[in-house]
Design goal:
It is built from five helices and no strands. The chain has 112 residues and is mostly helical. Helix 1 (11-23) runs antiparallel to helix 2 (27-40).
Length: 112
Amino acid sequence: MGDLVSVRPTCEFYFDRGMQAFERFHYEKALTCLQRSKSLAKTKDDYIFVVCQLAICLESVGNYRGAVIALEEIPSVNYQTHPELQYFLATAYAFFRADARELSISESLLTK
């Protein structure tokens, strides 16, 4: 029998696993790992970085509302030091609004 190797879960460990899953199009696994990574982040910068990647993954599965919610968890005082947050949030809002608009158009066409 082999030796047991203990694994101490860290933000980086789950982030790396999440990104590997994302690159292989295993989005549900990627989302799970990135959520865990977010909860284990020790620094503000790590937290912000993970949330941005999580938002991208959420957008990839069509969960634009989830991407907006995740990004809005980050206080706006961080926009000065992390201007990419504004870009990611603007993109998430654009997808979310477009998705809602398309749904409204589809519903109106189906009821005619």
